[in-house]
Specification:
With 137 residues, this protein is mostly beta strands. The chain contains 1 helix and 9 strands; from the N terminus they run βββββββαββ. Strands 1-2-3-7 form a 4-stranded antiparallel β-sheet, with no helix packed on it. Strands 4-5-6 form a 3-stranded antiparallel β-sheet, with no helix packed on it. Bound molecules: FE2/S2 (inorganic) cluster.
Length: 137
């Protein structure tokens, strides 16, 4: 699996998302409460740009009249027909076995491990030959 550097941490604060294309695949990376999740930006229903939809929560009920609202900001609702998917897993709540969006692992790595550094200026070999300083270009 190839690694792709997609943003500096400062560019993707909690609650935001970034759209990109990696190897021809449309992907969105979300920062959900300081953790990062990648999701294919294509709805399995009819192909809408799923990740452009609103972030919502999950309403569940154990008993009639009792509604628990959880996972606030962790569910994406497709902008075309409203299908909902868990950003952490790509799971659909309407039919988890048949409909799932491809999820991609995303995480933070120290800058030094993904960007070659420290930065260096171009160096030019210098040597002394019989009392003359010689620069080689
Ligand atoms: S295309 Fe996403 S719900 Fe229809």
């Amino acid at each position: 699996m190839a690694r792709h550097v997609i943003a500096a941490v400062d560019e993707l604060p909690p609650g935001t998302r970034k759209f990109l294309e990696i190897d021809g695949r449309p992907i969105a990376v979300f920062n959900i409460k300081g953790k990062y999740f990648g999701l294919m930006n294509r709805c399995p229903h009819q192909g809408a740009a799923l990740c452009e939809g609103p972030l919502i929560g999950l309403a569940q009920s154990k008993d009639p009249g009792e509604i628990e609202y959880t996972k606030i900001g962790e569910i994406i609702r497709c902008p075309w027909h409203g299908w909902e998917f868990d950003i952490r897993t790509g799971q659909s709540y309407c039919d988890p076995r048949r409909f799932r969006v491809k999820a991609y692992p995303a995480h933070v790595e120290p800058g030094a491990s993904v960007v070659k550094g420290p930065y260096v200026a171009e160096t030019i070999p210098v040597k002394v030959e019989s009392d003359y300083v010689v620069v080689e270009l």
